[in-house]
Amino acid sequence: QVRLVESGGGVVQAGGSLRLSCAASGFILDDSAVGWFRQAPGKEREVVSCVSSSDSTSYYTNSVKGRFTISRDNAKNTVYLQMNSLKPEDTAVYYCASVADSDYDRECQLVGFYEHDYWGRGTQVTVSS
Questions:
Q1: Residue 34, strand partner residues
Q2: How confident is the chain (129 residues) per 10-residue block, as mean pLDDT?
């Protein structure tokens, strides 16, 4: 079965850390560009970070730069999002998505008229003040 599964969410106090995992099954994630997105209650989904398929260059939205790190573990077919110095405004459902036939620009927007191939179901991150 081809799918992406996120895990690692939870409840943490402000200033704490979490590591989210995006595990792929049924396909090789290293062949794809992968992005992390989040959606807070009452807000639109926004991009958090992405890693390119061509050279594994990573990009981050301004609000998480210096606090979040995206990385790949090809042996585990997984992409991680290490989140440090968490803030209450980071509270959201976090999703990962992948695309094989396109890549991201510096704003984590897909190049060309492509959509993501797969999306996970999300993992809840709650940061208490």
A1: 51, 98
A2: 96 98 95 96 96 89 97 95 98 97 90 92 97
